[in-house]
Amino acid sequence: MSNRKRSSNKKTSSIWRNILAAILLLIAIALIFNTSIRNMIIAWNSNRYQVSKITEADIEKNKQAATTFDFDQVESISTEAVLKAQWEAQELPVIGGIAIPDLNINLPIFKGVSNVSLMYGAGTMKEGQEMGQGNYALASHNIIGMAGSSETLFAPLLRAKEGMKIYVTDKQHVYTYIVTEVKSVTPESIEVIDDIEGQTEITLVTCEDAAATMRTIVKGKLETSVPYKEAPKSMLKHFEKKYNQLQL
Q1: pLDDT above 60 for 4
Q2: Which one, 74, 83, 205, 218, has least CB within 10 Å?
Q3: Which of 29, 42, 126 is nearest to 77 (CA)?
Q4: Which pLDDT score, from 0 to 100, does residue 146 have?
Q5: Helices 3-32 and 34-48 sit at what angle, rounded to 10 degrees?
Q6: In this predicted structure, what is the pLDDT of residue 148?
Q7: Residue 247 placed within a domain
Q8: Domains held by the chain: number
Q9: CATH label of the domain that carries residue 83
Q10: Which stretch of 4-18, 60-74, 154-168 has the lowest confidence by average pLDDT?
């Protein structure tokens, strides 16, 4: 074999080694920053859909949107699912916002419980439910990583305590609920979101573990309702807080 041919083979082999090394490096970087990328996308979309950026007219229109209320079709959240949802660039039906100041929560409320809506905010669990009436039930994800729960979406509900305030708004009114109960139930305990005659409450639902074997339920009793335009700035500011929970 000529020296020129040997040199060419060595050069080709070196190029392929470099390409392989670059691919492995990219894979390693993707694995290292996997969670950060996912959480950044969630935060960006949650901020984009914040109720403070949505008009009352848009909310009224979004209330008519067709969506799903089948909680059984909801899948566990993953980076791949978040990226897929991002590329689909869906326009989600925002119908309000929920803020829990003591837990640093400020999320959009979407109509229904589609996979995509629960990745970026809270979804309504029953068709036709109304804020300030009956049992207003909302669900969202709790992202659980290697180090345990993060601060993403409804994960902070695991630290909820009796007496905390929950604010929800549809830009017509702001409703204030006071947390009355925090408990764990099995996924089959769907009665927790049923209306109870004579009671006006809110029920927040999220998973406790990666396998979704248990649910954390936070219940609150309606305390006050004020017109949105008459609500004090100290109350409305909670719906303007940027979603920045980007912990790994």
Answers
A1: no
A2: 83
A3: 42
A4: 38
A5: 50
A6: 43
A7: no
A8: 1
A9: 2.40.260.10
A10: 4-18
d(CA 213, CA 194): 21
- Judge whether 154 and 196 are in contact, CB under 8 Å: no
CB 100 within 8 A of CB 169: no
Close Cβ partners of 218 (under 8 Å, ≥ 6 residues apart):
157, 160, 166, 179, 181, 182, 203, 204
pLDDT over threshold 90, residue 35: no
Choose, from 207, 217, 218, 222, the residue flagged as catalytic.
Answer: 207
**Which stretches of the chain are assigned E, i.e. beta strand?**
94-100, 105-110, 122-124, 135-139, 142-145, 148-153, 165-169, 173-185, 201-207, 215-227
Examine residue 4 and state whether it is found in any structural domain, yes or no.
no
| pLDDT at position 31 | 46
Catalytic status, residue 238: no
Cβ atoms 145, 248 nearer than 8 A: yes
How high is the pLDDT of residue 19?
Answer: 77
Residue 5 lies in a domain: no
- Contact criterion met (CB below 8 Å) for 135 and 193: yes
Confidence bin at 147 (pLDDT 50/70/90): very low
What is the mean predicted confidence (pLDDT) over 38-67? 86
> Of residues 141, 171, 173, 215, which has the active-site annotation?
141
Burial bucket for residue 218 (CB in 10 Å: 0-12, 13-18, 19+): buried
144: β partners? 149
Strand, coil or helix: 225: strand
Give the pair of three-digit tokens for residue 16: 């392929």
Q: Which of 37-41, 55-59, 132-136 has the lowest mean pLDDT?
A: 37-41
Find all residues with CB under 8 Å of 152, minimum gap 6, and list them.
39, 42, 141, 142, 143, 245, 247
Q: What is the pTM of this model?
A: 0.79
Q: Which domain holds residue 17?
A: 10-240
